[in-house]
Design brief:
5 helices, 32% strand, alpha/beta, binds guanosine-5'-monophosphate, two-stranded antiparallel ribbon
């Protein structure tokens, strides 16, 4: 998606530790008009698929998933939670996910009520790096006996191993911007 690549080049900042900061349109302040273009693009890419639910992980995935849902007939959005609040109950699917940005392990959970056998799940997330978030979401969908239609990623750091790990599970991965390399002096090359 050319407009996304241009926006990343214009507005993104590269932080130490291989982190691309895009918090003025994706991860903190959200450019809603632009997110609508992202949602439309996911719909175009997955237009051949029936989707009954969109699955993502808190926090940054939620806004993208909700906007995307509007182009998929407003199917429900379910987000994996990183902490088990007191009111969620014990009827949950759970899996451990190593956080790329924080380096800690979160036990992420989804209530069994909201993922069911027969669901056709489109997974949406902001970034794909080492694949741990995506693998965790696939694991939750599998525990529920749901079908995974594919994974839609806004920004993929294609030089990291995430895509290979997720594709090895037979999951289709579609990214709107694929970064081939980036350096701390601000240089970003797209695939
Ligand atoms: P993975 O699990 O694939 O290693 O990393 C994906 C998750 O880590 C995403 O949900 C995203 O929140 C975060 N992440 C990974 N790389 C980056 C990055 O370069 N910038 C930002 N802002 N988040 C990232």
């Amino acid at each position: 998606m050319k407009a996304l690549e241009e926006k990343i080049k214009r507005e993104g900042k590269i932080l130490p530790g291989n982190v691309l900061k895009v918090d003025n349109f994706l991860n903190h302040q959200i450019d809603v008009r632009f997110m609508c273009e992202i949602g439309k693009e996911f719909k175009r890419i997955f237009s051949d698929k029936e989707v009954t639910k969109i699955l993502t992980i808190e926090a940054s995935g939620i806004g993208i998933a909700c906007i995307t849902s509007q182009y998929f007939d407003c199917v429900p959005v379910v987000f994996a939670k990183k902490s088990k609040g007191t009111n969620i109950g014990d009827d949950i699917y759970s899996t451990a996910v190593m956080s790329f940005t924080h380096g800690n392990i979160n036990n992420v959970i989804v209530s069994k009520k909201y993922l069911n056998p027969g669901d056709k799940v489109l997974i949406i997330d902001d970034f794909l790096a080492k694949g741990q978030a995506l693998l965790g979401l696939c694991n939750l969908a599998e525990q529920a006996g749901a079908d995974i239609v594919g994974a839609g990623i806004v920004i993929e750091k294609a030089y990291q191993e995430g895509r290979a790990l997720v594709e090895a599970k037979g999951v289709r991965v579609e990214s709107l911007a694929k970064i081939q390399s980036m350096s701390e002096d601000g240089d970003i090359v797209f695939c």
